[in-house]
Amino acid sequence: MTPVRTTSSLAIASLVSGILGWTLLPFIGTIVAIITGHMARAEIRRSAGTLDGDGMAIGGLILGWVSALLWVVGIAVIFLFLGGMAWLATLN
């Protein structure tokens, strides 16, 4: 009889948080998706084949890291825009 493989709850949490990071909880969901995604992948590797959900964990990680990257780029663009506006104001 083959052992029953269960899905990692951390992998599910990562995927759900990654989706929430793009919709309802932009900053918190992003952080939780990244943390739980890495924890889920480690848990799945240590489980010796008894846990599933690596794809969900990777999906949560991708959603989390892309969202974090966009946050950083967005903040940089805002600072560069405001810095450029301040520089233009000093020219007059």
Write the layout of secondary structure elements.
Elements: E1 6-7, H1 9-22, H2 26-46, E2 51-52, H3 54-91
Parallel strand pairs: 1-2
Helix pairs in contact: 1-2, 1-3, 2-3
Tags for this model:
92 residues; mainly alpha; two-stranded parallel sheet; 3 helices; 2 strands; rod-shaped
Mean pLDDT: 93
List segments where confidence is low: pLDDT < 50 over at least 5 consecutive residues: none
Strand content: under 5%
Shape: rod-shaped
Keywords: Membrane, Transmembrane, Transmembrane helix
Protein name: DUF4190 domain-containing protein
Domain DUF4190: 10-73
Pfam families: DUF4190 (PF13828)
Write up this protein:
This protein has one domain (7-91). The protein contains three helices and two strands. The chain has helices at residues 9-22, 26-46, 54-91, and strands at 6-7, 51-52. It has a two-stranded parallel ribbon with strand order 1-2. The chain crosses the membrane at residues 12-35, 56-89. InterPro entries: DUF4190 (IPR025241). Residues 10-73 form the DUF4190 domain.
